[in-house]
Amino acid sequence: MSSFWSWYVALLTVGNIVACYWLIRWASKPRKGEANEGDVTGHTWDDDLQEYNNPLPRWWLWMFYITIVFGLIYLILYPGLGRFSGVFNWNQTEAYNQQMAASEARYGPIFSAYAKRPIAELAKDAAAMRAGQRLYLNYCATCHGSTATGAVGFPNLTDSEWLYGGKPETIKQSILDGRQGMMPPMGAALGDAQSVEEVAHYVMSLSGGDADTAKASAGKAKFATCAACHGPEGKGNPALGAPDLTNGTWLHSSTGSVAAVVAAINEGRSGKMPAHRQFLGADKSHLLAAYVYSLNEGQ
Ligand code: HEC
Ligand code: HEC
Q: How far is the CA of 114 from the centre of ligand 1 (A)?
Protein backbone atom coordinates (compact mmCIF):
# COMPACT_ATOMS: atom_id res chain seq x y z
CA MET A 1 0.00 0.00 0.00
CA SER A 2 1.44 3.41 -0.93
CA SER A 3 1.80 5.94 1.87
CA PHE A 4 -0.93 8.10 0.31
CA TRP A 5 -3.52 5.33 0.63
CA SER A 6 -2.19 4.41 4.05
CA TRP A 7 -2.86 7.95 5.32
CA TYR A 8 -6.13 8.10 3.44
CA VAL A 9 -7.44 4.97 5.19
CA ALA A 10 -6.07 6.00 8.59
CA LEU A 11 -7.52 9.53 8.48
CA LEU A 12 -10.86 8.33 7.19
CA THR A 13 -11.09 5.75 9.98
CA VAL A 14 -10.11 8.13 12.79
CA GLY A 15 -12.26 10.89 11.27
CA ASN A 16 -15.30 8.61 11.35
CA ILE A 17 -14.78 7.76 15.00
CA VAL A 18 -14.38 11.41 15.95
CA ALA A 19 -17.51 12.24 13.95
CA CYS A 20 -19.50 9.56 15.81
CA TYR A 21 -18.39 11.01 19.15
CA TRP A 22 -19.30 14.51 18.04
CA LEU A 23 -22.71 13.33 16.81
CA ILE A 24 -23.57 11.80 20.18
CA ARG A 25 -22.49 14.94 22.06
CA TRP A 26 -24.38 17.18 19.67
CA ALA A 27 -27.58 15.11 19.79
CA SER A 28 -27.65 15.01 23.59
CA LYS A 29 -27.41 18.81 24.08
CA PRO A 30 -30.68 20.76 24.50
CA ARG A 31 -31.29 23.30 21.76
CA LYS A 32 -33.13 26.62 21.64
CA GLY A 33 -36.79 26.49 20.74
CA GLU A 34 -37.00 22.80 21.63
CA ALA A 35 -39.51 21.39 24.13
CA ASN A 36 -38.13 20.95 27.64
CA GLU A 37 -37.08 17.49 28.73
CA GLY A 38 -40.14 15.41 29.57
CA ASP A 39 -42.57 17.69 27.68
CA VAL A 40 -44.47 16.88 24.52
CA THR A 41 -42.82 18.20 21.37
CA GLY A 42 -46.04 19.08 19.62
CA HIS A 43 -45.65 16.34 16.99
CA THR A 44 -48.80 14.23 16.79
CA TRP A 45 -49.53 11.20 14.59
CA ASP A 46 -52.70 9.20 14.02
CA ASP A 47 -54.83 11.70 15.94
CA ASP A 48 -53.48 11.05 19.40
CA LEU A 49 -49.99 9.62 19.20
CA GLN A 50 -47.70 12.24 20.76
CA GLU A 51 -43.95 12.55 20.80
CA TYR A 52 -42.16 13.38 24.07
CA ASN A 53 -38.73 14.94 24.34
CA ASN A 54 -37.11 12.25 26.49
CA PRO A 55 -33.37 11.56 26.56
CA LEU A 56 -31.95 8.19 25.49
CA PRO A 57 -31.65 5.80 28.41
CA ARG A 58 -28.24 6.18 30.11
CA TRP A 59 -27.19 2.59 29.47
CA TRP A 60 -27.89 3.05 25.77
CA LEU A 61 -25.76 6.17 25.59
CA TRP A 62 -22.96 4.32 27.41
CA MET A 63 -23.09 1.57 24.82
CA PHE A 64 -22.21 4.17 22.18
CA TYR A 65 -19.25 5.41 24.21
CA ILE A 66 -18.07 1.87 24.93
CA THR A 67 -18.19 1.01 21.23
CA ILE A 68 -16.04 4.04 20.45
CA VAL A 69 -13.51 3.15 23.16
CA PHE A 70 -13.46 -0.48 21.97
CA GLY A 71 -12.81 0.69 18.40
CA LEU A 72 -9.91 2.89 19.47
CA ILE A 73 -8.27 0.16 21.60
CA TYR A 74 -8.72 -2.33 18.75
CA LEU A 75 -7.04 0.02 16.29
CA ILE A 76 -4.07 0.42 18.64
CA LEU A 77 -3.63 -3.34 19.11
CA TYR A 78 -4.47 -4.69 15.64
CA PRO A 79 -3.77 -3.52 12.09
CA GLY A 80 -6.53 -1.24 10.82
CA LEU A 81 -4.96 2.18 10.37
CA GLY A 82 -3.34 2.02 6.96
CA ARG A 83 0.16 0.63 7.25
CA PHE A 84 0.34 0.74 11.04
CA SER A 85 0.66 -2.92 12.03
CA GLY A 86 -0.74 -2.59 15.57
CA VAL A 87 0.97 -3.14 18.93
CA PHE A 88 0.41 -6.94 18.78
CA ASN A 89 1.98 -7.08 15.31
CA TRP A 90 -0.70 -9.61 14.33
CA ASN A 91 -1.12 -10.40 10.64
CA GLN A 92 -3.38 -12.60 8.59
CA THR A 93 -0.69 -14.43 6.63
CA GLU A 94 1.22 -15.34 9.76
CA ALA A 95 -1.97 -16.55 11.46
CA TYR A 96 -2.88 -18.63 8.40
CA ASN A 97 0.60 -20.17 8.25
CA GLN A 98 0.47 -21.03 11.93
CA GLN A 99 -2.93 -22.68 11.60
CA MET A 100 -1.77 -24.61 8.55
CA ALA A 101 1.37 -25.77 10.38
CA ALA A 102 -0.72 -26.82 13.38
CA SER A 103 -3.12 -28.79 11.21
CA GLU A 104 -0.22 -30.35 9.29
CA ALA A 105 1.33 -31.46 12.59
CA ARG A 106 -1.98 -32.94 13.68
CA TYR A 107 -3.24 -34.57 10.47
CA GLY A 108 -0.02 -34.94 8.48
CA PRO A 109 0.94 -38.26 10.15
CA ILE A 110 -2.50 -39.72 9.32
CA PHE A 111 -2.13 -38.90 5.62
CA SER A 112 1.47 -40.05 5.46
CA ALA A 113 0.48 -43.40 7.01
CA TYR A 114 -2.16 -43.79 4.29
CA ALA A 115 0.36 -42.76 1.65
CA LYS A 116 2.55 -45.77 2.50
CA ARG A 117 -0.19 -48.23 1.52
CA PRO A 118 -0.98 -49.27 -2.07
CA ILE A 119 -3.89 -47.41 -3.68
CA ALA A 120 -5.89 -50.57 -4.49
CA GLU A 121 -5.68 -51.72 -0.86
CA LEU A 122 -6.49 -48.28 0.53
CA ALA A 123 -9.59 -48.17 -1.68
CA LYS A 124 -11.03 -51.04 0.40
CA ASP A 125 -10.40 -49.37 3.77
CA ALA A 126 -13.67 -47.77 4.89
CA ALA A 127 -12.08 -45.28 7.33
CA ALA A 128 -9.53 -44.16 4.74
CA MET A 129 -12.30 -43.72 2.17
CA ARG A 130 -14.32 -41.55 4.56
CA ALA A 131 -11.27 -39.29 4.88
CA GLY A 132 -10.79 -39.44 1.10
CA GLN A 133 -14.39 -38.44 0.50
CA ARG A 134 -14.01 -35.39 2.75
CA LEU A 135 -10.97 -34.29 0.76
CA TYR A 136 -12.83 -34.98 -2.47
CA LEU A 137 -15.81 -32.84 -1.42
CA ASN A 138 -13.49 -29.98 -0.45
CA TYR A 139 -11.19 -29.94 -3.43
CA CYS A 140 -12.75 -31.76 -6.37
CA ALA A 141 -16.53 -31.55 -6.13
CA THR A 142 -16.68 -28.03 -7.60
CA CYS A 143 -15.68 -29.45 -10.98
CA HIS A 144 -16.49 -33.17 -10.90
CA GLY A 145 -19.71 -32.87 -8.86
CA SER A 146 -20.44 -34.00 -5.30
CA THR A 147 -21.21 -37.52 -6.52
CA ALA A 148 -18.22 -37.45 -8.92
CA THR A 149 -20.48 -38.03 -11.92
CA GLY A 150 -19.09 -34.96 -13.66
CA ALA A 151 -20.80 -32.49 -15.99
CA VAL A 152 -20.41 -31.32 -19.57
CA GLY A 153 -16.66 -30.75 -20.00
CA PHE A 154 -15.83 -32.36 -16.63
CA PRO A 155 -15.37 -36.11 -16.75
CA ASN A 156 -17.44 -38.57 -14.79
CA LEU A 157 -15.06 -40.33 -12.36
CA THR A 158 -17.46 -43.13 -11.44
CA ASP A 159 -17.80 -44.84 -14.83
CA SER A 160 -15.27 -47.19 -16.33
CA GLU A 161 -14.46 -44.82 -19.22
CA TRP A 162 -11.20 -42.92 -18.81
CA LEU A 163 -9.57 -40.22 -20.86
CA TYR A 164 -6.12 -40.89 -19.47
CA GLY A 165 -6.51 -44.39 -18.02
CA GLY A 166 -7.95 -45.79 -14.82
CA LYS A 167 -4.98 -47.61 -13.27
CA PRO A 168 -4.21 -46.47 -9.71
CA GLU A 169 -0.93 -44.82 -10.74
CA THR A 170 -2.50 -43.09 -13.77
CA ILE A 171 -5.29 -41.63 -11.65
CA LYS A 172 -2.71 -40.41 -9.15
CA GLN A 173 -0.70 -38.79 -11.93
CA SER A 174 -3.83 -37.01 -13.23
CA ILE A 175 -4.29 -35.54 -9.75
CA LEU A 176 -0.65 -34.67 -9.02
CA ASP A 177 0.41 -33.17 -12.34
CA GLY A 178 -2.91 -32.25 -13.90
CA ARG A 179 -3.95 -32.97 -17.49
CA GLN A 180 -4.44 -30.85 -20.56
CA GLY A 181 -6.51 -32.25 -23.41
CA MET A 182 -6.22 -30.29 -26.66
CA MET A 183 -8.12 -30.70 -29.87
CA PRO A 184 -7.65 -27.86 -32.36
CA PRO A 185 -10.54 -26.78 -34.61
CA MET A 186 -10.56 -29.33 -37.46
CA GLY A 187 -13.13 -27.89 -39.85
CA ALA A 188 -10.54 -26.41 -42.20
CA ALA A 189 -8.56 -29.65 -42.32
CA LEU A 190 -11.66 -31.53 -43.47
CA GLY A 191 -12.46 -28.98 -46.15
CA ASP A 192 -16.11 -28.04 -46.42
CA ALA A 193 -19.20 -28.19 -44.21
CA GLN A 194 -20.40 -31.30 -46.04
CA SER A 195 -17.27 -33.24 -45.11
CA VAL A 196 -17.61 -32.11 -41.51
CA GLU A 197 -21.18 -33.37 -41.43
CA GLU A 198 -20.24 -36.71 -43.02
CA VAL A 199 -17.44 -37.28 -40.52
CA ALA A 200 -19.87 -36.37 -37.71
CA HIS A 201 -22.34 -39.02 -38.96
CA TYR A 202 -19.50 -41.52 -39.10
CA VAL A 203 -18.47 -40.65 -35.51
CA MET A 204 -22.06 -41.12 -34.31
CA SER A 205 -22.25 -44.47 -36.10
CA LEU A 206 -19.21 -45.70 -34.12
CA SER A 207 -21.28 -45.88 -30.95
CA GLY A 208 -24.46 -46.99 -32.68
CA GLY A 209 -25.94 -43.51 -32.33
CA ASP A 210 -28.35 -41.67 -34.61
CA ALA A 211 -26.56 -41.51 -37.96
CA ASP A 212 -27.34 -41.52 -41.66
CA THR A 213 -25.75 -44.66 -43.16
CA ALA A 214 -24.83 -43.09 -46.51
CA LYS A 215 -23.27 -40.01 -44.94
CA ALA A 216 -21.46 -42.15 -42.35
CA SER A 217 -19.85 -44.31 -45.02
CA ALA A 218 -18.82 -41.19 -46.95
CA GLY A 219 -17.26 -39.83 -43.75
CA LYS A 220 -15.33 -42.99 -42.95
CA ALA A 221 -12.37 -42.25 -45.25
CA LYS A 222 -12.17 -38.66 -44.05
CA PHE A 223 -11.87 -39.86 -40.46
CA ALA A 224 -8.19 -40.50 -41.27
CA THR A 225 -7.64 -36.81 -40.34
CA CYS A 226 -8.83 -37.63 -36.83
CA ALA A 227 -7.07 -40.97 -36.48
CA ALA A 228 -3.75 -39.48 -35.38
CA CYS A 229 -5.34 -38.65 -32.05
CA HIS A 230 -8.52 -40.72 -31.78
CA GLY A 231 -6.99 -43.87 -33.29
CA PRO A 232 -7.87 -45.52 -36.63
CA GLU A 233 -10.99 -47.11 -35.11
CA GLY A 234 -11.85 -44.08 -32.99
CA LYS A 235 -11.01 -45.87 -29.76
CA GLY A 236 -9.12 -42.89 -28.37
CA ASN A 237 -5.62 -42.42 -27.03
CA PRO A 238 -4.99 -42.16 -23.30
CA ALA A 239 -1.56 -40.59 -23.86
CA LEU A 240 -3.26 -37.53 -25.38
CA GLY A 241 -6.51 -37.70 -23.47
CA ALA A 242 -8.31 -38.13 -26.81
CA PRO A 243 -11.66 -39.67 -25.93
CA ASP A 244 -12.86 -43.06 -27.15
CA LEU A 245 -15.58 -42.11 -29.66
CA THR A 246 -17.07 -45.62 -29.78
CA ASN A 247 -18.29 -46.08 -26.19
CA GLY A 248 -21.38 -43.87 -26.21
CA THR A 249 -20.01 -41.81 -23.28
CA TRP A 250 -19.69 -38.11 -24.06
CA LEU A 251 -17.58 -35.50 -22.34
CA HIS A 252 -18.63 -32.36 -24.17
CA SER A 253 -22.36 -32.98 -24.50
CA SER A 254 -24.85 -34.70 -22.25
CA THR A 255 -25.90 -37.10 -24.99
CA GLY A 256 -23.98 -37.36 -28.22
CA SER A 257 -25.51 -35.99 -31.39
CA VAL A 258 -24.42 -35.13 -34.91
CA ALA A 259 -24.77 -31.45 -33.98
CA ALA A 260 -22.50 -31.84 -30.93
CA VAL A 261 -19.84 -33.63 -32.98
CA VAL A 262 -20.05 -30.97 -35.73
CA ALA A 263 -19.54 -28.31 -33.05
CA ALA A 264 -16.57 -30.21 -31.58
CA ILE A 265 -14.96 -30.45 -35.02
CA ASN A 266 -15.52 -26.79 -35.91
CA GLU A 267 -14.68 -25.25 -32.56
CA GLY A 268 -12.08 -27.67 -31.27
CA ARG A 269 -12.27 -28.91 -27.70
CA SER A 270 -9.98 -28.61 -24.72
CA GLY A 271 -10.11 -29.34 -21.04
CA LYS A 272 -7.74 -28.68 -18.20
CA MET A 273 -7.41 -30.64 -15.02
CA PRO A 274 -5.33 -28.46 -12.64
CA ALA A 275 -2.23 -29.95 -10.99
CA HIS A 276 -2.55 -30.57 -7.26
CA ARG A 277 1.03 -31.53 -6.34
CA GLN A 278 1.94 -28.13 -4.86
CA PHE A 279 -1.50 -27.36 -3.52
CA LEU A 280 -2.43 -30.64 -1.78
CA GLY A 281 0.90 -32.46 -1.62
CA ALA A 282 1.69 -36.06 -2.48
CA ASP A 283 0.09 -37.72 0.56
CA LYS A 284 -3.38 -36.24 0.15
CA SER A 285 -3.22 -36.83 -3.61
CA HIS A 286 -2.46 -40.49 -2.92
CA LEU A 287 -5.53 -40.81 -0.71
CA LEU A 288 -7.65 -38.99 -3.31
CA ALA A 289 -6.43 -41.35 -6.02
CA ALA A 290 -7.58 -44.24 -3.83
CA TYR A 291 -10.94 -42.57 -3.34
CA VAL A 292 -11.44 -42.08 -7.10
CA TYR A 293 -10.29 -45.67 -7.69
CA SER A 294 -12.80 -46.92 -5.09
CA LEU A 295 -15.63 -45.33 -7.10
CA ASN A 296 -14.70 -47.69 -9.92
CA GLU A 297 -13.84 -50.88 -8.12
CA GLY A 298 -14.71 -54.09 -9.85
CA GLN A 299 -14.28 -52.71 -13.38
C1 HEC B 1 -4.60 -33.26 -32.07
C2 HEC B 1 -5.38 -34.38 -31.65
C3 HEC B 1 -6.81 -34.45 -32.13
C4 HEC B 1 -7.30 -34.46 -33.41
C5 HEC B 1 -6.50 -34.35 -34.70
C6 HEC B 1 -8.73 -34.60 -33.30
N7 HEC B 1 -9.10 -34.67 -31.99
FE8 HEC B 1 -11.00 -34.80 -31.32
N9 HEC B 1 -10.33 -34.59 -29.42
C10 HEC B 1 -9.00 -34.57 -29.05
C11 HEC B 1 -8.92 -34.39 -27.62
C12 HEC B 1 -7.64 -34.34 -26.80
C13 HEC B 1 -10.25 -34.29 -27.16
C14 HEC B 1 -10.70 -34.08 -25.71
C15 HEC B 1 -10.60 -32.63 -25.37
C16 HEC B 1 -10.72 -32.42 -23.88
O17 HEC B 1 -9.76 -32.71 -23.17
O18 HEC B 1 -11.77 -31.99 -23.44
C19 HEC B 1 -11.11 -34.43 -28.32
C20 HEC B 1 -12.50 -34.40 -28.29
C21 HEC B 1 -13.31 -34.71 -29.35
C22 HEC B 1 -14.74 -34.83 -29.29
C23 HEC B 1 -15.62 -34.66 -28.07
C24 HEC B 1 -15.82 -36.04 -27.46
C25 HEC B 1 -16.76 -36.06 -26.29
O26 HEC B 1 -16.71 -37.06 -25.57
O27 HEC B 1 -17.54 -35.13 -26.11
C28 HEC B 1 -15.17 -35.18 -30.54
C29 HEC B 1 -16.58 -35.48 -30.97
C30 HEC B 1 -13.99 -35.26 -31.37
N31 HEC B 1 -12.89 -34.95 -30.63
C32 HEC B 1 -14.02 -35.58 -32.69
C33 HEC B 1 -12.93 -35.42 -33.54
C34 HEC B 1 -12.99 -35.56 -34.97
C35 HEC B 1 -14.23 -35.97 -35.74
C36 HEC B 1 -11.75 -35.29 -35.45
C37 HEC B 1 -11.31 -35.24 -36.88
C38 HEC B 1 -11.97 -34.30 -37.70
C39 HEC B 1 -10.91 -35.00 -34.31
N40 HEC B 1 -11.66 -35.09 -33.17
C41 HEC B 1 -9.58 -34.67 -34.39
C42 HEC B 1 -7.90 -34.66 -29.87
C43 HEC B 1 -7.97 -34.59 -31.24
C1 HEC C 1 -11.09 -26.69 -12.07
C2 HEC C 1 -11.82 -27.89 -12.30
C3 HEC C 1 -11.26 -29.18 -11.76
C4 HEC C 1 -10.89 -29.48 -10.46
C5 HEC C 1 -10.90 -28.60 -9.23
C6 HEC C 1 -10.54 -30.87 -10.46
N7 HEC C 1 -10.64 -31.38 -11.72
FE8 HEC C 1 -10.18 -33.26 -12.27
N9 HEC C 1 -10.48 -32.77 -14.22
C10 HEC C 1 -10.99 -31.59 -14.68
C11 HEC C 1 -11.12 -31.63 -16.12
C12 HEC C 1 -11.66 -30.52 -17.01
C13 HEC C 1 -10.63 -32.89 -16.53
C14 HEC C 1 -10.54 -33.41 -17.95
C15 HEC C 1 -9.31 -32.88 -18.61
C16 HEC C 1 -9.39 -33.03 -20.10
O17 HEC C 1 -10.44 -32.70 -20.68
O18 HEC C 1 -8.40 -33.47 -20.69
C19 HEC C 1 -10.26 -33.59 -15.30
C20 HEC C 1 -9.74 -34.87 -15.27
C21 HEC C 1 -9.54 -35.60 -14.11
C22 HEC C 1 -9.11 -36.97 -14.08
C23 HEC C 1 -8.80 -37.84 -15.29
C24 HEC C 1 -10.08 -38.49 -15.73
C25 HEC C 1 -9.92 -39.45 -16.86
O26 HEC C 1 -10.95 -39.78 -17.43
O27 HEC C 1 -8.80 -39.88 -17.14
C28 HEC C 1 -9.07 -37.37 -12.76
C29 HEC C 1 -8.70 -38.73 -12.20
C30 HEC C 1 -9.46 -36.22 -11.98
N31 HEC C 1 -9.72 -35.17 -12.82
C32 HEC C 1 -9.55 -36.21 -10.60
C33 HEC C 1 -9.70 -35.05 -9.86
C34 HEC C 1 -9.57 -34.99 -8.42
C35 HEC C 1 -9.33 -36.17 -7.50
C36 HEC C 1 -9.72 -33.68 -8.07
C37 HEC C 1 -9.60 -33.07 -6.68
C38 HEC C 1 -8.28 -33.06 -6.13
C39 HEC C 1 -9.96 -32.93 -9.29
N40 HEC C 1 -9.94 -33.79 -10.35
C41 HEC C 1 -10.15 -31.57 -9.33
C42 HEC C 1 -11.33 -30.50 -13.90
C43 HEC C 1 -11.08 -30.39 -12.54
A: 37
